[in-house]
Amino acid sequence: MHAYLLINQDLNVKSQIEDLAKKLNAKMLSFPIVKVEDTRNLNDLIRLSFNEPTLIICERINEAGDEALNAFLKNLEEPQENIYFALTAPSVRKVLPTIVSRCEIVKIRSTNIEIRNNDEIEKFLNGNVGEKLNYIDKIKDRNKAIELVENSVIFLHGTLHENAVKCKVQANNIEVAIKTLTGLKANGNVNLQLTNMLINISNLKTNSHN
C-alpha cells in the first residue's frame, strides 16, 4: 500500500505520521492540498525521480476542493516509485469516496469519541439476514448509522489483503459501504440506506478467520 488515510476527529496524528515514516524508512514532506493549483504543483514535484522513499503528507484532505482531489486521484491510481502519501481527515465520510477506496485507512482513537470494537462490526457483517435486520432496526439516528457504516468500511479495509481469493469480494463490500455513506451524507432515509447495504452485502462474508 502506498497511500494511507489517517482518521482522527481531533486531527492529532503527528506521532502516527512519524511512526509511519519510520516504518516505511521514508523522509517526510508536507504538501497541503486545497486548490487545483496545489495539486498541479505537487504533480510537477513528483514527476522528478525520488532516489529514496518519501512520505508526502497532505493534512486535512477533506478540505480540498473536488477539482483538486480529482486531479490528485491519478497519483493514487498510478503510484510513483518511492512515493507514499499520508492523508489526514477527521472522518472517513468527509473524504471523497474515490480517495477513500484507494487508501489504507488508519483510524486513531480519540479521547472524546466512542469507537465500536472490531468484534461487534465483524459480528454484524458476518450475521445472517435476520440478524442484520434486527441490528439495523434499532438504529434510528443518522449519526449512529454513519458510525456503523464508517466502522464497517474501516474493518473491511483491514481484512482486504488477508485472503487474495476473497479480495474482489471484499472490494465489493467496501464499495457498497462507501455508497451507503454517500447516501447517508446526502440525507437519504436512514433505514432505507442501511437496508440497501444489508441486501448488497448479505451474502458476502468477511472471512477474517478463514
Straight-line N-to-C gap: 23 Å
- Topology, number of strands: 5
Tally the helices: what do you get?
Answer: 9
Radius of gyration: 18 Å
Kindly state the mean pLDDT as a whole number? 82
Poorly predicted regions:
111-115, 206-210
Going by CATH, the architecture of the largest domain would be 3-Layer(aba) Sandwich
Count of distinct structural domains: 2
Secondary-structure-based class equals: alpha/beta
InterPro entries: P-loop_NTPase
Protein name: Polymerase III subunit delta' protein
Pfam families: DNA_pol3_delta2
Short account of what is shown:
This protein is an alpha/beta fold and 210 residues long. It folds into 2 domains: 3-107, P-loop containing nucleotide triphosphate hydrolases (Rossmann fold); 118-201. 50% of the residues lie in helices and 12% in strands.
Strand-helix topology:
Blueprint: E1 3-7, H1 14-24, E2 27-30, H2 36-46, E3 54-58, H3 66-77, E4 83-89, H4 97-100, E5 104-107, H5 118-126, H6 129-137, H7 142-159, H8 167-185, H9 190-201
Parallel strand pairs: 1-4, 1-5, 2-3, 3-4
Helix pairs in contact: 2-3, 5-7, 6-9, 7-8, 8-9
